[in-house]
Structures are given as C-alpha cells and as structure tokens.
Amino acid sequence: MNTKLLIDAIVRQTTVLIAQLSTAAGIRAPLAHIADQVFLELAREIEAQGVSRKVAADMFGLAIRTYQKKVQRLTESATIRDRSLWEAVLEHLQEHGTTSRRKLLEHFNRDDPIVVGSVLNDLVSSGILYKTGSGEGVVFGVTNEPDLAQTRREQSREALVPIVWVVVYRSGGIQREALQKQLSVDPEALDDALVTLEAQGQVERLGEGERATYRASTFLVPVGAEHGWEAAVFDHFQAVARAIANKITRGRPHAARDDTVGGATLTFDLSPNHPYREPVLGLLKQVRAEANELWDKVQDYNADHPIPEDARTEVSFYFGQSTVSHDEA
User: Fold this and answer.
1) Which residue from 138, 94, 147 is spatially nearest to 117, judged by alpha carbons?
2) Last residue of a domain, one of 61, 81, 101
3) Residue 132 DSSP SS3
4) C-beta separation of 81 from 33 below 8 A
5) In what order do the strands lie in the sheet with 129-132?
6) Rounded to 5 degrees, what are φ and ψ at 95?
7) H-helix segments, the chain
8) Burial, 67: exposed, middle or buried (Cβ in 10 Å; 0-12, 13-18, 19+)?
9) Integer Cα distance of 186 and 209 in angstroms
10) Looking at the structure, do residues 109 and 50 belong to the same domain, yes or no?
C-alpha cells in the first residue's frame, strides 16, 4: 500500500469538501485557522497513537524544540477563531450602520482595496448588504440589520444543538470541559445547547458541576428536517473515516467475504432509457427504508432489554448515493 499517495489523494478530496462547505448558501466561512488546526489535530492524534514527540516532529520536518513551541502556541489559542475580512466588514457595518465606500476603505486601509471591494460586492450579491448611489458617492448598509443579526444568532444556535448531540452520542460520555475543548464554541452557546438537549430528552446529564458527564443513547436527524444537516454530514463523514481507520489498524486492509468492518463503492453508468435506471436511482430510498426498519427493531428490543456497558458493541452502518450527469462532470 502506497500510504503517501493515499494521504495526498484524501487531503485533496477533503479540501474540495471544505471549500464547498465554506461557501455554501452564500456564507463565506473563515479559513485562516485551517492550517493551524490541521497541524494541531494531526500532532495530537499522532502522539495518541504512541509516537514520541521527537519522531512526530521529524514526521513534520521540524526540530523537536520548534515542534514543541508550535504545539504549545496553537494549544493556547485553540479556542480563538480568526475572523475573515468578509466577517470583519459585515460586523463593522452592523455596528456603525450605513457607511460610504470611502470610509470603509479608510477603516480597512491595511487590506488590499481590491479585496475589500470584492468582499463588498459578494455581500451585496448575497443579499446581506445593500448599496445606493454610484461612484465615489456609493454607500453600503446591512439589509434589515436587526432581523438579520437575530436570524444569524438563531441559526447558529439551532445548528449547534445537533452538532453537540452527535458529539455527545459518539463519545459514549463526555464532560462539559472536554466538549468545550473539542468544539471550540462560545461557552454560553454550548450551555444553551446542552440545556435544550436535556429538556428534549436527547442528552442525559450524570452528576453535577464541572464533573458532570453528558451521554446520549441515540442520535437521529429525521428525513426532511430543516435543521441538523451539519450534524448528519459530520456523523456520516466520521463513520466513513472510522471504518477506514478501523480496517487499517486491524492489519487487514483488504476485503474478505466475512467482513464486519469495511465498505463498498459501486458506480453505475446509465442512459435516459436504461432498463435498470429506476432500480439504480431507487437504491438510496430502498436501503434507507430497510436500514431504518431494522434500526427501529433494534431500538425497541434494546428498550426492553438494556445492554450492559461492558457488553455493548457499536456498529456504525453508513451508505450514500450521488448522481452526476455528463454536463456536470
């Protein structure tokens, strides 16, 4: 197995996914922290695999002292998310109200004026900002500022709840401090999400205070739900990554007929009048229905016959389907 080629290919595909997520629905998520975050997470995981810091430093092509200083610096600032210029411009207008292009360029004088102009055009085209006038007299303002600010806060809160839920579920039990460290979100927002999940019966709190542990027995985002797609995407991506990692660590990275760990990817070529077009396109619906039916049966049985923690085996089954027409390829 050529591990280096495999890693390079996975990194390329992951960057495509990150790029699409960061620009989804007109939102420009900040990416300035990505390189540091990748380094820190890689360093932590490599050391968790039993590799010494000296060897880990060598894997990154760094001297041990440089490696240690970099890990320390990034660990200390792990909860700080760098703001993008896109966010800074929007926040400035939300705080100061309608502002002329000239004053905006003066305020952001350390940034390339061409980039500032591109950000303003992008915010206007996204409907987040409006502009009036022309030339030197053009001014920019936030569209329905109070409503927009409130909507963004509510969307962030609603999106965080399922993310917290899936992380708690997959952890098997996690303390609030560890959860805060893993998610790097606003503490008050995290507390609100935990309170919401407790009230809905989706998360259980064991103990009190800082040592309280949160657990979740299930995680489910129903088909058609307006919120929670972020958590569902994360859960699916995590399941695929865990299956691959599990396969590799077991020392048998090839398929066998009796496998209980692994996956399969099949690609079908279809024409508009292909006799098997409908069965192929219906695979997702069919497998989802069968899997959900089995999941319901397992949940009902487990409710009547609780599984002791030391006898519990978690099986994560993932599947997916995508279609790409010839003119999209």
Assistant:
1) 138
2) 81
3) strand
4) yes
5) 99-100, 139-142, 129-132
6) -80, -40
7) 3-22, 34-48, 53-59, 64-76, 85-96, 101-107, 113-125, 145-171, 176-183, 187-199, 229-249, 277-281, 283-304
8) buried
9) 18
10) no
Q: Over the stretch 53-104, which tens digit does the pLDDT of each residue have?
A: 999 999 999 999 999 988 887 776 544 344 567 778 888 888 888 899 889 9
Q: How many CA atoms lie within 13 A of 241 on its CB side?
A: 10
Q: Is 144 in a helix, a strand, or coil?
A: coil
Phi and psi, residue 223, nearest 5°: -60, 130
Phi, psi (deg, nearest 5) at residue 214: -105, 135
Q: Residue holding tokens 């996956």?
A: 263
> What's the pLDDT at 280?
96
**Token representation of residue 38:** 């990748």
Provide the whole-model pTM: 0.56
User: How far apart, in whole angstroms, are the C-alpha atoms of residue 148 and residue 274?
Assistant: 48
Query: Stretch 147-155: mean pLDDT, rounded?
Result: 54
Angle at which helices 187-199 and 145-171 cross, to 10°: 70
Coil/strand/helix, residue 100? strand
Enter the tokens of residue 179. 């959860």
Rounded to an integer, the average pLDDT of 167-193 is 83
> At 163, which CATH number?
1.10.10.10
Sequence-distant (6+) residues with CB within 8 A of 218 are 169, 202, 299
How far apart are the C-alpha atoms of 94 and 145, rounded to whole Å?
Answer: 7
Q: Is residue 10 part of a domain?
A: no
pLDDT of residue 117: 86
Q: What is d(CA 195, CA 175) in angstroms, rounded to the nearest whole number?
A: 14
Q: Is residue 237 part of a domain?
A: yes
Parent domain of 277: 265-324
Place of tokens 């990554």: 241
d(CA 225, CA 227): 6
